[in-house]
Amino acid sequence: ANRYVVEPPRRRFRRCRAALRRCLGALTGTPPASLRFGAEKFGKPILVEPDPAGLVFNVSHTGDWGVIAFGWSRELGVDIETIDPRLDGLALAARFF
């Protein structure tokens, strides 16, 4: 959270992580405060304690929106981005694709 210079994004990050802890706590039967996290090689957060037993998750947030995905025994990824209404998506796609 401290990577965010201004408070609104920092607060949203903390809320998203709190929701992640609550959900993971419910899925593992562990108090959210007892969960311990690590990071994969490229910084993706992983659950270290309790042993996740195949439970995987991914988090993405932007602006006022966030998404958390859970799965078992398969890697997964999510990404959410804010749409900038000033961009012409069709022109951008035609140019690059």
Number of strands: 4
Shape field? globular
C-alpha end-to-end distance: 36 Å
Average per-residue pLDDT, rounded, comes to: 87
Helix-strand category: alpha+beta
Specify Rg, calculated over alpha carbons: 16 Å
Number of helices: 2
SSE ordering = HEEEEH
Largest sheet: 2 strands, antiparallel
Give structural notes.
The chain is globular and about 50 Å long. The termini are far apart. A hairpin with a 5-residue loop joins strand 1 and strand 2. The chain has helices spanning 7-28, 89-96; strands spanning 36-39, 45-49, 55-62, 65-72. It is of the alpha+beta class and 97 residues long. It has two helices and four strands, in the order αββββα.
Helices and strands in order, then pairings?
Blueprint: H1 7-28, E1 36-39, E2 45-49, E3 55-62, E4 65-72, H2 89-96
Antiparallel strand pairs: 1-2, 3-4
Can you describe this structure in just a few lines?
This protein is α+β, with helices and mostly antiparallel strands and 97 residues long. The chain is built from two helices and four strands, in the order αββββα.
